[in-house]
Hints:
By secondary structure, the protein is of the alpha+beta class. The chain has five helices and eleven strands. Helix content is about 25%, strand content about 25%. The chain has a single domain (about 35-240), classed as Immunoglobulin-like (Sandwich), CATH 2.60.40.10.
Amino acid sequence: MAYKQRLIFLLLPVLLFAAADQSWQTKPIAEWNEDEAHQVLTDSPWAKTVTPTVSRAADSGQSRRRSGMGQMGGMGGVGIGMPGMGGMGRRGGMGAPSTGSNSAGNTDSGSGAPPTLTVRWESALPVQGAELKTRSINAPAMDEDYYAIEVSGIPSKMIHSDGSNLEDQLKGQAVIKRDGKKDLKPSSVKVLTGDDSTAVVYFFSHQNEITRKDKLEFNAQILQLKFTQAFNVEEMMYQGKLEL
């Protein structure tokens, strides 16, 4: 009996930390504090960090496009309107995109070290609630007919000199894979460029419904950055409801 009591005493801090770490799960969004909201945005079933691999072949292709096109000085701010999607913009303003826990300013894409990216289900209710709670003025506007995945933390200097067909290129290089089902391809893509950090938002139609039984894997390539991120749908529940 003494051994069991000692074991419980030793485990208690761990159990309390785990409970505190996920405290947002048991509260209405209105009762979240900023730390809980920040966790939802950076380290939760809907938000993951990933370190991409660097494709040197893509980097070479980009360099060739730059040399053929010149420095395209006007490409710094890619248009934010989205035909057919009610004027995709940002809910609170036109500032630099949200980057979760990333700081693209720390990253030198020319050094060969890839940046750390945040991959987040922007369309999920907990994420939208957390952005309101943290007063994130840079959250992209959503359309209720689409799932939306945002990849943030991309150094803007990777984007500025690329061509006007970048969004179409990215659209063809992203997919949600589901075990035993047809892959989901984005209906549209928007590039949201800030001074230092850029985000890419992928929109997938609700006509291809995702269910709790699906096993999801998001694959994408953004210029020379390639990555794969799995999501556990069983964990993407809030207040008893699947939230995507």
